[in-house]
Amino acid sequence: MAAGSRQIFANEVATGAKNVGVVLFSIQDPTNIFNVISSAGNSRSVYPVMTSALHNSSWKFYARMQKIDPALDVISGQVMSHILVDVYYE
User: Which burial class, exposed, middle or buried, applies to 20 when counting CB atoms under 10 A from its CB (0-12, 13-18, 19+)?
Assistant: First the structure.
């Protein structure tokens, strides 16, 4: 995660953009779009899956760049962040 944030994934390019990272939002329900990571750094995404939908289930997300520290300027450059989405069933 980006320094000072539990919701913004860090830019992995050391010589790239500064004060910017990547956030991942759930858009599964268009009326309830939210950051998949809570402000405490925990997962907020829980999707019920019926037995009939276990094969080829899919979930909708989008990623965007996010300023990390509102008091600092963003310095332009390349942004890259590898984000792994884990899935488990209970």
Answer: buried
Residues contacting 19, CB < 8 A, separation 6+: 67, 68, 69, 72, 73, 74, 75
Residue 21 lies in a domain: yes
Is residue 77 in some structural domain? no
pTM score of the predicted model: 0.82
Query: Does the residue 7 lie in any domain?
Result: yes
Number of domains in the chain: 1
Q: DSSP secondary-structure letter at 77?
A: S
Q: What one-character DSSP code corresponds to residue 32?
A: S
What confidence tens digit (pLDDT) does each residue in 43-52 have?
888 887 777 7
Distance CA 21, CA 68 (A): 7
Q: What does the pLDDT look like over 3-28, one tens digit per residue?
A: 889 999 999 999 999 999 999 999 99
Contact 68/21 with Cβ under 8 angstroms?
A: yes
